[in-house]
Write a structure and sequence with these properties.
It is a single chain. This protein is an alpha/beta fold and 364 residues long. Helices cover 35% and strands 14% of the residues.
């Protein structure tokens, strides 16, 4: 069976190992543009040795930003900055990926270290978010989104298409569509956030329609030899998680038919009162079930921190890739540490040549 440090090939893209730097929002942009923070941050992560690095959730439209400081790809003017990031990632030996998303009713908030709450309506940067239905994320809140019209929906589908084209032009070779975390696509899927009575509400087929239309639109411009993937919140941790999971399995089968190659198994987080069973590796059993029941390659993240665990998940065919987030922020050279813990021959080889040289030839 493959191991954590074996290569992984999907379509025409081969990763040097099965470790992925997960999308992690930085909230450091102005008007969606890449700046020195992003170039430094992503080149540093890539030098750490991950096989794939996925750039943070990037808004396909201004009103789709979680905060005013989110990155964006809603105009051609953004492409050049993203090209510099993709180049830096690839020069460090990682595959450059990007996550495209729309925050839906969770848009227009402050960064998490400032509370993560909706911007004051008097703030000049504030806007009213859009969603599947005019239901606020927090019940009783006056901060309700606008319900999207059919024209609004088609505009956002086109926004995803155009952002995917720009991502390709910027040099990214792995695309992840953000269909999780209570953001726009997830709220179309969930009956807790979608009470529509048209073709985008009611039945599961209708509620999945937005995701499938986005996928088909993106597929029309994304090169067929490059991976097209999605992060999906597969389970709502409420009084009957198995019901939402069974629906997700069917949606994944439809996404596969529509052209999705790989599923990053995530959380729904549709409502603020979900009872998520936080703990080490808690999403791995769900991901394994997705893999087994849909025959789709999968990954997950969420509190996976030990190299031995990650290696076991690959060897036991529970996961195809392992996503790491805060682990890599705490130690950008965690991949090297993992290689030593797993007794990889020449663990220094996962690092850039200058680092490898000094570690191989000089004592501590």
């Amino acid at each position: 069976m493959p191991d954590l440090f074996d290569s992984y090939t999907l379509k025409d893209i081969t990763l040097r190992n099965r470790i992925v730097a997960s999308p992690m929002c930085q909230y450091q942009a102005e008007n969606g543009f890449v700046n020195d923070w992003h170039r430094t941050h992503y080149s540093m992560l890539a030098r750490g040795g991950a096989g794939l690095l996925i750039v943070e959730a990037t808004a396909v439209t201004p009103e789709g930003r979680i905060t005013p400081e989110d990155l964006g790809l809603w105009s051609d003017a953004h492409t050049e900055g993203f090209a510099s990031v993709a180049t830096a990632i690839k020069q460090a030996g990682s595959v450059a990926g990007i996550q495209l998303g729309h925050a839906g009713r969770k848009a227009g908030c402050t960064p998490p270290w400032k509370g993560g709450t909706p911007l004051d309506s008097q703030d000049p940067q504030a806007w009213t978010p859009v969603a599947a239905s005019a239901i606020p994320f927090v019940q009783g809140s006056n901060y309700a989104p606008f319900e999207m019209s059919l024209t609004d929906i088609q505009k956002v589908v086109n926004d995803f298409r155009n952002a995917a084209r720009r991502a390709c032009e910027a040099g990214f070779e792995w695309l992840e569509l953000h269909f999780a975390h209570g953001f726009l696509a997830q709220t179309f899927l969930s009956t807790k956030a979608n009470t529509r009575e048209d073709q985008y509400g009611g039945s599961l087929e209708n509620r999945a329609r937005f995701m499938l239309e986005v996928t088909e639109a993106v597929k029309s411009v994304w090169p067929p030899h490059l991976p097209l993937t999605a992060r999906l919140g597969v389970v709502e941790f409420d009084d009957c998680p198995e019901y939402s999971f069974s629906e997700s399995l069917q949606v994944i089968r439809w996404l596969k038919e529509a052209g999705i190659d790989f599923i990053d198994v995530g959380l729904a987080l549709t409502t603020p009162d979900e009872q998520v069973p936080w703990g080490p590796n808690f999403m791995v059993p769900w991901a394994e079930r997705v893999r087994r029941e849909t025959d789709m390659p999968v990954s997950t993240s969420w509190m996976i921190t030990r190299a031995s665990d990650a290696s076991d998940f690959i060897q036991d065919a529970k996961l195809d890739l392992v996503f790491f987030a805060r682990t890599l922020l705490a130690n950008p050279h965690w991949v090297f540490q993992a290689a030593r813990e797993l007794n990889l021959p020449s663990p220094e080889s996962v690092l850039p040549d200058p680092y490898a040289y000094w570690l191989q030839n000089w004592a501590e």
